[in-house]
Amino acid sequence: MTRSSSTEPDNPGRTALGNVEEELRAEIEQLKRQLHERVHATGAHGLENPRRPRRAAILGLLLLIAAIFVVAFLAGYVPRHRRELQLVAEAHAQQESLPEVSVMAATRGSGIGNLVLPGNIQAVTEAPILARAEGFIQRRYVDIGDRVSAGQLLAEIQAPDLDQQVVQARAAVQQSQADLERATAALEQGKANEALAKVTATRWNNLSNRGVVSRQENDQYQAQYLAQSANVRALDRAVAAAKGNVAASQANVARLTELQGYLQVRAPFVGVITLRNVDVGALVNTGSTLLFRIAQTNPLRTYVNVPQVDAPEVRVGQTATLSTADLPDRKFNGVVTRTANALDPASRTLLVEIQVPNPDGKLMPGTYSQVDLNLPRKDPPLLIPSDTLVVRPAGTLVALVDANNKVHFQAITVGRDLGDRIEVLSGLKAGQRVIVNPNDSVQEGVKVHPVVGK
Question: Under a CB-based contact definition with an 8 Å cutoff, are residues 396 and 412 in contact?
Fold first, then answer.
């Protein structure tokens, strides 16, 4: 930058250097004149025997010339250097006068999305144990918290009424079998009478054809044969009915005998007794009295509701991690076993089931858990600090700083709120600088001094 001499401020140092330079020039001119006069005074004799100049004079002359160059250099360089320092100071002051803002670059999220959702741990299989026979609890072998195996005896029921019903049903079977025997004997007798009536009717038919007997007598024997045939068919049906009665009686005996088997209450599968509702001597009714509740605790399952935006990324077989508040230092690995394959129209979420092995029984059904789904992302969203958002009537904005350090407000579409970070679905590009916590000094088009935040 150049400045005219009229606008340049007074410089006392430069004036002093100029005076020294003038004095040195005057001394040089005086030495030249003295040398010239001495040459003329010596005349020709001096030319024939010239006297060499003394070494001290030559050295002094050289020193004088060097001093002249040093003074000239200082006279030109020092003012220029001072002007440059002044310009740097002015530029620095101008830069410091710009508002300083903290900026951070928009970055892509991880290719693996950590989607943490609440879940409720449940048993894979849980069943109430109800009474199938009426009676009284005679013995109880388990209580809440006991681990049982499949088929293990839990309780015994005493049912005297059922025992008497079994005796009555067996007697009914014997009676039905006796009725069947009588019907069978009657059927055999009817078949014999039918055979005799058939022979008689055949003979009388032959005699009638010869004219030995009247047709009236022949018709009478023919009718008796038809009556015996009908009687045989009726007796045959009676035998079938008797057989049916026998089968029904036997089925009733089998049913009551099967109910007697339910007097011994057994565990249907391996699990834990989570509820005991009766004690010895309690009256139980068929199908209404809850005796126990048993739950299978290995493995366990938990259900989570995945939001619609992440539902397409959930696949059967992918891994998940569970954590609970009572075991904060331990993580449980699970696997997605099934999904609903349909969104709930009320919440727009996908129901997902995750099974977790529980061999040591540390997890309990009914526990609240946090489920971390490791969802792969083909296009990870941009992440910016949560305190960069500016909400205005025009929408959600962020203040960007361009390459010229000027402010520009950009409208964006936000996704999930991750606490200290916000997902940006559209409106930004990776690497763009956004102003953190913009204040009133941040306006559109204003030049700022950006400072990269941590």
Answer: yes
* Residue among 441, 438, 452 at smallest CA distance from 410: 438
Question: How far apart (Å, rounded) are the C-alpha atoms in residues 432 and 440?
Answer: 21
Label residue 420 exposed, middle or buried (CB < 10 Å: 0-12, 13-18, 19+).
Answer: exposed
The pLDDT value given to residue 350 = 92
Cα–Cα nearest to 101, from 426, 398, 424: 398
pLDDT-based confidence at residue 29 (cuts at 50, 70, 90): confident
The region, left, alpha or beta by phi > 0 then psi within -120 to 50, assigned to residue 375 is beta
- What is the Cα–Cα distance from 108 to 379, expressed in whole angstroms? 9
pTM of the model: 0.51
Q: Which residues contact 109 (CB under 8 A, 6 or more apart)?
A: 377, 380, 381, 382, 383, 423
Strand partners, 355: 301, 335
56-65, 150-159, 276-285: least confident range? 56-65
Please state, as a whole number, how many other Cβ atoms lie within 10 Å of the Cβ of residue 350. 20
Token pair 């809850």 is found at 290
The CA distance from 323 to 181, in Å, is 73
Instruction: Please answer whether residues 396 and 389 qualify as being in contact, where contact means their C-beta atoms are separated by less than 8 angstroms.
Output: yes
Q: Give the rounded distance of the alpha carbon of 378 from its chain centre.
A: 16
Question: What's at 10, amino acid-wise?
Answer: D
DSSP-derived secondary structure for 338-399: EEEEEE-TTT-EEEEEEEE--TT--S-TT-EEEEEEEEE-SSPPEEEEGGGEEEETTEEEEE
* Residues 111-152 pLDDT 10s: 666 678 999 898 988 899 998 888 999 999 999 989 999 999
Q: Hey, what long-range contacts does 59-66 have (CB within 8 A, 24 or more apart)?
A: 61/31, 64/24, 64/27, 64/28
> What one-letter code names the amino acid at 110?
S
